[in-house]
């Protein structure tokens, strides 16, 4: 595509069409009904964001997206952007089997090839159902020591790792025909509050932001103009002394992002209609402030009335010179370049009823990620004699059952109940005298069970499998005794059991004992329904 082709298309567009290019709208419907059609026509909308409310099944959303593309072509010369949040983990609108892992779990591998494979496959899945824009990846850093808003949505707490992994994930999306959206510039590290609920000031210094948070974006910029960045709602006093939220800050959106750092892709807002203190201002006023600051596309996720009013107020601001026509044209030009880069092939609607997407490739990639993270802890287990006693204490029967599919391991499994007391668990483990104790942890509720395991001889042979964020074990359990997984994989028990069998066989061969024979108690059988409960001291 030549740039002059975009300029020719831009010259042919009316002011209404140009303003419509700036709006990414949400809507409550799951079908393209007459009300939605009239609304799209009225504001010339040419970008859409879909949520769970719009998805009844994958075949239905495929049909919806197909009709959105065809209908939009009647009122706009360009194909629409159709976006969705598909980060992985808890933030995933499209149901897949297996579920896509969290960014943090991917980042733990420190293997950019796996991030690329995951991004490429996720791009193919999204493209199949008519999406050409993913509101991912998250480039924010996570804090491993304390609770934070970003949590497992981040690839890492280390800037270089996060930069490497997120960029390769984005490259995979691009090569599958889906536009990545890095968020939330200039970084939301260290905040514990939810920015959807209140206006928050980042505690980061300018030095911290430049040496850590912005590093992830500099790597992402190397992907070129066919990318997007989402602005943060946070205030950054270290970058803008006026304490203007980044989404409305010219110093951050234009001076820092465009001029100093040289970013050439699309700049989009987080939802203008988020319920923060700045939402007391009229939506259209916030929208115009964001455009003047440097945004190209505004996300307006609900309220047809507000979307319509915003359209006409932007148009009016251009006519009055409040938003110069030259700036409007610059924004639309960038949008057209990106749209033409991601609308070369449009999928056909899915035939038949589809509710969940099974992907063999996704299964392969997630298994590699899980296996890599489990293998990272194996050196810590090499001195434990695995052929003669493994005990699993789990609050999840799913983990125990998965673990039990491997029959070569001499293992006992114990189902922990919600009322199991930490002291009772510690006493039972001490009496059981297993050479290796395994305790899967899914959150703070299950992490409390570790509080009474204090005997050094017991701690040394007890390993925690953490499916949650590392911060829940901060000060509670040693890092070297923790298998960090970062995502509740459906086959995590089996994967861990197989890794232990392999390690046990290596131990026996090293001792000249041959291969590991099947255990006396298959792991899938419950040796005791629950450790005996005793009163806490």
Secondary structure layout:
Layout: H1 3-12, H2 15-21, E1 23-25, H3 34-43, E2 47-50, H4 58-75, E3 81-84, E4 86-88, E5 91-92, E6 96-97, H5 103-109, H6 112-128, E7 133-134, H7 159-175, E8 179-185, H8 206-221, E9 228-231, H9 250-260, E10 266-271, H10 283-293, E11 297-300, H11 304-319, H12 325-341, E12 357-358, H13 360-375, H14 378-381, E13 390-394, H15 397-403, E14 411-415, H16 422-432, E15 436-441, H17 444-447, H18 456-459, E16 462-466, E17 482-484, H19 492-510, E18 526-528
Parallel strand pairs: 1-11, 2-3, 3-7, 6-12, 7-8, 8-9, 9-10, 10-11, 13-14, 13-15, 14-18, 15-16, 16-17
Antiparallel strand pairs: 4-5
Helix pairs in contact: 1-12, 5-13, 6-7, 6-13, 7-8, 10-11, 13-19, 15-19
Task: Explain this structure.
This protein is α/β, with parallel strands linked by helices and 537 residues long. Helix content is 41%, strand content 13%. It is built from 19 helices and 18 strands. It has helices at 3-12, 15-21, 34-43, 58-75, 103-109, 112-128, 159-175, 206-221, 250-260, 283-293, 304-319, 325-341, 360-375, 378-381, 397-403, 422-432, 444-447, 456-459, 492-510, and strands at 23-25, 47-50, 81-84, 86-88, 91-92, 96-97, 133-134, 179-185, 228-231, 266-271, 297-300, 357-358, 390-394, 411-415, 436-441, 462-466, 482-484, 526-528. The strands form four sheets. Strands 1-11-10-9-8-7-3-2 form an eight-stranded parallel β-sheet. Strands 17-16-15-13-14-18 form a six-stranded parallel β-sheet, sandwiched between helices. A two-stranded antiparallel ribbon has the order 4-5. Strand 9, helix 9 (250-260) and strand 10 form a beta-alpha-beta unit. Helix 1 (3-12) packs across helix 12, helix 5 packs across helix 13 and helix 6 packs antiparallel against helix 13. The longest helix has 19 residues, at 492-510. The termini are far apart. Mean pLDDT is 90; it is low at 518-537.
């Amino acid at each position: 595509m030549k740039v002059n082709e975009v300029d020719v298309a831009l010259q042919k567009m009316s002011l209404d069409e140009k303003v419509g290019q700036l709006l990414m709208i949400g809507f409550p419907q799951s079908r393209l009904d007459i009300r939605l059609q009239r609304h799209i026509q009225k504001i010339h909308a040419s970008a859409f964001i879909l949520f769970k409310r719009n998805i009844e099944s994958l075949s239905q959303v495929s049909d919806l997206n197909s009709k959105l593309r065809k209908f939009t072509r009647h009122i706009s010369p360009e194909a629409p952007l159709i976006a969705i949040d598909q980060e992985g983990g808890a933030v995933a609108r499209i149901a897949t089997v297996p579920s896509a892992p969290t960014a943090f779990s991917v980042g733990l591998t420190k293997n950019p090839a796996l991030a690329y494979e995951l991004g490429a496959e996720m791009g193919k899945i999204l493209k199949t159902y008519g999406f050409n824009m993913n509101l991912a990846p998250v480039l924010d850093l996570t804090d491993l020591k304390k609770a934070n808003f970003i949590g497992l949505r981040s690839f890492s707490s280390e800037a270089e790792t996060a930069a490497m992994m997120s960029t390769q994930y984005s490259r995979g999306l691009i090569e599958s025909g889906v536009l990545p959206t890095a968020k939330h510039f200039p970084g939301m590290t260290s905040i514990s509050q939810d920015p959807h609920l209140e206006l928050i000031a980042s505690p980061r210094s300018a030095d911290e932001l430049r040496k850590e948070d912005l590093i992830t974006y500099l790597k992402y910029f190397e992907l070129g103009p066919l990318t997007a960045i989402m602005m943060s709602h946070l205030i950054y006093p270290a970058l803008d002394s006026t304490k203007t939220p980044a989404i409305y800050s010219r110093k951050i959106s234009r001076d820092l992002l465009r001029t100093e750092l040289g970013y050439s892709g699309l700049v989009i807002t987080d939802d203008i209609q988020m319920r923060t203190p700045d939402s007391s201002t009229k939506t259209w006023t916030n929208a115009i402030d964001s455009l003047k600051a440097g945004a190209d596309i505004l996300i307006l996720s609900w309220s047809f009335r507000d979307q319509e009013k915003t359209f006409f107020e932007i148009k009016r601001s251009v006519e009055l010179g409040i938003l110069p026509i030259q700036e409007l044209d610059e924004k639309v030009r960038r949008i057209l370049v990106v749209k033409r880069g991601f609308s070369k092939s449009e999928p056909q609607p899915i035939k038949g009823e589809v509710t969940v997407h099974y992907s063999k490739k996704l299964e392969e990639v997630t298994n590699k990620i899980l296996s890599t993270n489990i293998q990272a802890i194996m050196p810590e287990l090499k001195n434990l004699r695995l052929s003669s006693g493994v005990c699993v204490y789990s609050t999840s029967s799913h983990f125990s059952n998965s673990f039990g599919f491997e029959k070569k391991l001499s293992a006992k499994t114990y189902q922990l109940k919600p009322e199991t007391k930490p002291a009772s668990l510690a006493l039972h483990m001490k009496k059981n005298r297993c050479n290796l104790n395994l305790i899967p942890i899914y959150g703070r509720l299950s992490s409390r069970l570790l509080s009474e395991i204090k005997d050094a001889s017991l701690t040394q042979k007890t390993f925690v499998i953490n499916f949650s964020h590392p911060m829940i074990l901060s000060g509670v359990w040693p890092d070297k005794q923790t298998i960090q997984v970062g995502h509740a994989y459906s086959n995590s028990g089996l994967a861990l059991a197989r890794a232990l069998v392999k390690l046990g066989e290596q131990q026996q061969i090293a001792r000249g004992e041959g291969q590991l024979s099947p255990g006396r108690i298959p792991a899938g059988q419950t040796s005791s329904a629950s450790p005996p409960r005793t009163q806490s001291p």
